[in-house]
Amino acid sequence: MEFLERNPRLDEKTVATIRGLIIDGTRKANSGHPGGAMSSTDMVYILFKYFLRFDPDNSCWFNRDRFILSAGHESMLLYSLLYFQGFIDKEELKRFRQFESLTPGHPEYGHTPGVDATTGPLGQGVAMSVGMAIAETVAAAQLGDDVIDHYTYVLAGDGDFQEPVTLGVAANAGHFGLGKLIVFYDKNDAQISGPVSRADSTDIAIVFKGFNWQVIKIDGHDHQQIVEAIVSAKEEQLRPSIIIGKTTIAKGAANVEGDFRTHGSPLSENEIAATKEKNGLPKDKFFYVDEEVIHSFRLHFEDLRNEIAELQSRVDKKTKTNIAFRQRLKELVENSLSFNTGIPKFKVGENLATRAAFGKVMATFAKQNTSIIGGSADLEPSNNTKDFADVAGEFSRNNRKGQNLSFAVREFPMAAILNGIALHGGFKPFGATFFVFSDYAKPAVRLSALQKLPVLYVFTHDSFYVGEDGPTHQPIEQLATFRSMPGILTLRPADARETAFAMQLAFDINNMPVVLALSRQSLPILDFQAVTFDNIRKGAYIVKDSNNNKPNLILIATGSEVHLALKVAEKLTDLAVRVVSMPSMELFDAQPNEYKQRILPDEVRYRVSIEAGSTFGWGKYVADGWSFGIDRFGNSAPASELEKSFGFTPENIATLVKERYL
Predict the structure, then answer these.
(1) Residue 570 is a catalytic residue
(2) Please, are residues 37 and 74 in contact by the beta-carbon 8 Å criterion?
(3) Which of 163, 271, 411, 643 is catalytic?
(4) Per-residue confidence band for 4, with pLDDT thresholds at 50, 70 and 90
(5) What is the pTM of this model?
(6) Vertex 369, ends 426 and 532: CA angle to 5°?
């Protein structure tokens, strides 16, 4: 017991009150999921009342225990407890699922005080919790467990465990030995379509034992068993714990207890009245909370405040004598990372793949900063993350200060774990894989964008120049996919220097994810003064202009095709040609109109885009011109052969330009 002895009578009364808020909220909204929230109430109430460490006066306190509602559809349960904590008021409970309320249909990070993650797509809450637990572990190793010492708790339901991402991250968590990660599994054996047994017979206990988790089975409605399970989970420091609570959906309901249809449908008014009567609540009062219940729930708030004050005293002593500690703690508390990102020198005339340039830059960054965490989904040599790993060290059971994460072949789990690290705060997370496998990671990338998380996604082998691996490994539509996603920045640099500047930019951004698309093949380092950080930051710039700076044709390209465009320009001796590198459409679109006119003046109507990917999205830049790309899947052959077959040669494009222009 953390703060006070249990009062069984008040515990039962509080649980009944919370269930009353759940059924009233979903009924008033005429929308929502009461059944699962009611079955989970006992476990989550005991956690929040007796174990969860938080600051009643600051929902963002850095050393708080994190709670992630992976079963995001049970949001009325979380909102009710946030009301009990004092982070939202009762009026917001009454505005459940209404426009701009603090109680949206699924929890939204950054919108509602006390919500630690945006959840809704099942499985991703569990996945993000693993990232949070990793971040806590590394932070404690860096700053001391007398300063950083908190748990990550998760509530998940049957649907979470049916999503494969949960199994992927669970394998990672067990391998890493994340002892301060505790998952509650509300096993009510019901889902929207019917009993779970219709679709699934997996023994999660056996599976998680195989993942090296501590598995605890309990009656999820027995408060003493819940208490003992949490105590046991907190005592286990070498393995994450899963508490499997066997529960009944719509627990406490008068007539529909155990009915799977309560999963996604509000209870009827008659059922609500009967349920309230059964649970000792006034059936004619809505959103009813007895003052005795609130008072009881908040009895230990002063104890929490005292504990926080004691921690702050320890922190103050450390910060007075340790400048490095003070700076690192400031980054963690304020989540305002400032990177000293000096970059290596690259020689003009040297040929270097942008993925190789990334590796060199990342290793340099790692020598300068201890707040970078990430790794590759089993493509370390190909993604060029090995140099970072050599500098930063491998995170493991035996090296808690290690910053390189070996995710294995798990792109979706990797991306979701990165989100958890970013949500925890204090670190810049990155993950790498082949660009074509970004399709596996995309659901988590979308949540990165939704939550405005500064995650860096490094996608190498960015075009059909992958070559012999064939169409399964050659990204075609992926650039268009990420450019169409709101709240994300996509960068495709043309050479090593553009890559370095793009990475500096990515590390300066703290409010959105960044995608880096990098080449497999070696590329010449551009010999132009225009390759500067400021020009990369603007999204597009003039690499080479016509002799009189008054072009009648503009070639726009990204990545490896900037070099191709320069060669095409050399063959168009009868035309005044400008070559523009556009590493980022989003950045260019955000520039003032004056700058955009300087790069792509309205009077130059004949423009050609060149990119080794889908032409989708280029129409807004080419005016009366056209786009050269590849709108079909590739083939298996050496890259040089594909280059010719697909027409990505200076001779072919120059001929097409002349034919269409003249």
Answers:
(1) no
(2) yes
(3) 411
(4) low
(5) 0.97
(6) 105
